[in-house]
Design brief:
The complex is a heterodimer of chains A (145) and B (149).
Chain A (H helix, E strand, L loop, with lengths): L1 E4 L1 H11 L7 H9 L4 H6 L2 E6 L2 E9 L7 E11 L4 E9 L11 H16 L4 E6 L4 E6 L5
Parallel strand pairs in A: 1-5
Antiparallel strand pairs in A: 1-6, 2-3, 3-4, 4-5, 6-7
Chain B lengths: L5 H56 L7 H30 L1 H6 L1 H25 L6 H9 L3
Helix pairs in contact in B: 1-4, 2-4
The chains are: A alpha+beta (145), B mainly alpha (149).
């Protein structure tokens, strides 16, 4: 499975990572997505929408400083197991001063539209896993020849 | 009492010794109090573990989208049950959080409980949205079909 992120997703990650309350966000992403089977990626989290084998999922990520409990962040992701692609659409905190209300399907749709725009412009980012640090990092990826 | 005689000394010593011995029973009381706090913390932990199991089950329910009149009622039963549970534990959380001793002694597990209550509230809303308020969205379906191509 390849993990691709929109520019707006990356911007949200960077913004949160810069704040002490949320600086575990890269580790939370690692914990949720590293070494997951395709089935786990489809099953974990709530399904907001799906058609055939493509899903829009809302996933609960680990909280910072809370003994490994999930619930600190929410990620909206699109998963197409057949194509081997997991698109990261949006991420937001559910605790702390920047906490947000639950994302609706409409907001997921807006985030997916932004992802598709980045895909057309060939400016998606790939999420990679740093196993030693148990963290993730993002690199540009060119999908068009 | 002026301590001029052995008897007077004895009385004073025994009185003071008796006071010191009473501290032991206070220590027992403190230990019992601490045991109660630990028991309360364990109870809240058990509640949190139960919430985690529930949350996973509710998430997996969102995979099932086929809704007919029979399953309509079943989903409503589930939602009603979850709402009642969440309301009960919200009240319990509020009561416990009012007491400084409980709040301080069970701080971490109480914070976990609040997160779990909020998470379940969110999951209930997601279920209602998915099963009862969902509308055909051809545009979203088309976008989802395109996203990995």
């Amino acid at each position: 499975m390849i993990f691709l992120a929109s520019q707006s997703f990356l911007s949200e990650v960077n913004q949160l990572h810069g704040k002490s309350k949320y600086n575990c966000i890269l580790k939370s992403l690692f914990s949720e997505f590293h070494n997951r089977t395709d089935q786990e990626l489809i099953e974990r989290g709530s399904t907001l929408h799906h058609i055939n084998d493509k899903y829009i999922k809302k996933k609960r990520l680990l909280t910072c400083n809370n003994g490994g409990k999930r619930g600190g962040f929410r990620t909206i992701a699109a998963v197409d197991a057949a194509a081997g692609v997991c698109g990261l659409l949006m991420i937001y905190p559910k605790v702390g001063p920047d906490r947000k209300n639950s994302a609706t399907k409409s907001e997921g749709k807006t985030a997916l539209a932004s992802y598709l725009k980045d895909k057309d412009s060939d400016c998606l980012m790939e999420m990679n896993f740093n196993v030693q640090d148990e963290s993730v990092y993002f690199t540009p990826i060119k999908l068009k020849p | 009492m002026e301590l001029t005689t052995i008897s007077a000394h004895k009385a004073k010593i025994l009185e003071t010794s008796s006071q010191v011995k009473s501290y032991v029973s206070e220590e027992d009381q403190i230990n019992q109090f601490l045991d109660n706090v630990i028991a309360l913390r364990n109870f809240i932990n058990d509640v949190n573990d139960g919430y985690e199991r529930l949350l996973l089950l509710v998430e997996s329910l969102t995979q099932a989208e086929d809704l007919d009149s029979a399953s309509d009622a079943e989903v409503q039963d589930i939602l009603d049950d979850l709402k009642k549970l969440n309301t009960s534990f919200s009240r319990m959380f509020a009561q416990m959080n009012r007491h400084e001793v409980v709040r301080n002694g069970c701080n971490t597990v109480l914070l976990d409980l609040r997160i779990n209550i909020r998470n379940l509230g969110e999951s209930i809303t997601d279920l209602e949205e998915l099963f009862f308020l969902s509308e055909d969205d051809e545009e979203l379906t088309a976008m989802l079909n395109d996203f990995a191509l």
